[in-house]
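Suppose a colleague, Dr. K., hands you the sequence of a protein chain of 277 amino acids and asks what its three-dimensional shape might be. Before reaching for any lab equipment, you can write down a predicted structure in token form. Begin with the sequence itself:
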Amino acid sequence: MDENLKFKCSQLEKRLLEIGKDGLCIAFSGGVDSTLLLDTAASLPINVTAVTFSSRLSPKTELVEAAALASSMGVQHYFLTFDELTNESILANPPDRCYHCKKFIFSSLKDFCKQNSLGAVADGTNADDLKQYRPGLRALRELEIYSPLAECGFTKAEVRAAASSAGLEVHSKPSAPCLATRVPYGTRLTDELLCKIETGEEALKSLGFLGCRLRAHGNIARVEVPISEFEKLINMREKIIPLLKKVGFVYITLDLEGFRSGSMDIVLEDFGGKSGR
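The predicted structure, expressed as tokens, is then:
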């Protein structure tokens, strides 16, 4: 670990000690960001609790992995269950859906903390997230949720490097954002649609495409994988096509630009431009 990253890790410990003096609740997804945050906090002399959101928009495999990780750290862990599809502002899937969703679930997390005498809430937002279209960040600010990794300047690459140095197996784990990010803005979210996306994406992952996205455009599946995996995917087309048609897609396409995070945000100018970062 280089000296700059060592310094940032030291700053992260200091920040967690400051905000966690009256008990700290960490929103824990089981991804590399929140895992590094939880692992660091668990090593400090503060009261730490991990809470994972169980919801219609959460890939189910992520919940299992989060529980196993928290258990391995010996941290008290809870699930909070939500049905975002009862909230019209989320169900309608507007460009600022993430704002409404974060406000919805983190408001409940704040209530949980009050009930359990935990003085602060932290999440795994990193410094790179601040440069992207993330309307949910506004909700975090309004609710006074701390983002220690971002505060200490950790980029995603530095989070992975620190997690690797700490011996965390998730250091190379691909990001797993909520299932709604696979749906074009303005397309209403339904249980059927989310289930189709999750089942199809898990089928792709079972074939070895761990860093994939299955974007749903009506009955068209737009598959994103890294460009380096194009040949592999084409060679496996006879396995992939029936799997995705079985879950309900009619047309199966490969996005020639390859995997890229936030590809649904490209069309945001059609909704009046990006807002709410």
